[in-house]
Amino acid sequence: MDKKSSQQKKAWRRPGSKPKKRKFQGKLPQDHEKDKSNTSASAQKLKKSKDTSFDVPVDQTAGYSIIHFFMVFTALQQYLKCKVCDKDVSFLKWGQRGLGFKILLTCDCGEKYIDSGPLISTGYEINRRLVYVMRLIGVGLSGINTFCGLMELGNGITSSTYYYIIDTISTAMQSVFDLAMRKSVNEEKLLNAARGEPEDVLTVSVKVPTVKTQDLTIKLMKELSTNYGLAIQRHPDSVEEMRREIWAGYYHKISTDEKPQHSYCSDSWCKYKKAVRDKTVKIFKHPPALAQDVQEILKPIYEDLTKQELLERCIGGNTQNNNESFNNCVWAMAPKHVFSGKIIVQIACQTAACIFNEGFKPVLKIMSVMGVKIGPTAIHYATQRDRERVRVANRRSTDASKEARTQRRNAILDENERYEEEEGTMYGAGIAD
Ligand SMILES: [Zn+2]
Ligand SMILES: [Zn+2]
């Protein structure tokens, strides 16, 4: 017997026989999202491609529906019979992972498993979609799980699944972002040529929002780790004092004129406390506080970094260490938050930059590179969004002779403002939880 027919035999079961076991012999749940080779390959292809359009293939069959599983399938059971054994069939929901699951169809012939939706490699497409789209509207893991839980959609996804998907998104995002950059550079060159200016003098606006926000994040992380190091160095013999001073830095930074929070601060470095001491606090103005979304990502980092056992290890002896090694220490100790925080900030910035320059098409492109099928509904939505944006800009534009590009930019700026009002987080760092 050759290899092929023995495999066939293994899969075949005598009609009417009951399956022996239903034990699932597969990967660990979180590993279904580990494989991002498809996305990496698509991203690589896109990077080499000369094509600078954001067109995506449209799958007319792509589409999801929310159904009440029990109600619908109990009704179907009333009507359906198996074509082979002519007996009743039953349906069960089985092996749920995120929003994906299998439908277990049982009749006298045995059991069959039907995927609730398409897979990308081994993961359900719907989960990648979910994570990306939620990211786009500023919702992270805990938000997703609240959504899934309260909507009776299952237990949501685990944190490792989430971070695998974030990694995939980041890969897809980077390639589409590069494409937007290439396109922008080409357009500037053409414009320069048309104006009779040197081709290479470029004013590529797409770079601005990205670099700025990333720099801000890195600066903040540096400041955080420096303060942390100093707090430990200043109090080599008391965990309590260390903790107090570390938190002082946090509350100091989120203080505003309306809500000063300097009770932990020392007047050796806190300007507010100094002002209190010098009785000039009435005219004291706080610098802009950390944005709400940044606060929310920093708080858990601070909580991790002020844990008893961690600070105990810093007692004594460590005064020799310079700031650099403290910094290394901080980065190493908070890898998950800092790492994912950075990637998530980057995804948000790059998405914002792409939308800023090209409208909503890059969003579809990113999804497509991730292996997600774009169907008629998503295309329709993106087209409507872009059309509306241009319409609003055209209406507001008083100077009819402005270049189309300027109009598009204005349209996108309007859109940005509207978005910031409506949804806040998307154009911020998008790290709402
Ligand atoms: Zn049957
Ligand atoms: Zn202070």
From TrEMBL:
The superkingdom of the source organism is Eukaryota
Q: Which residues form the Mutator-like transposase domain?
A: 74-200
Pfam families registered for this protein in UniProt: Mutator (PF20700)
Give me the segments passing through the membrane: none
Q: Where is the composition biased (Basic and acidic residues)?
A: 393-416
Spans of biased composition, class Basic residues? 1-25
Name of protein: Mutator-like transposase domain-containing protein
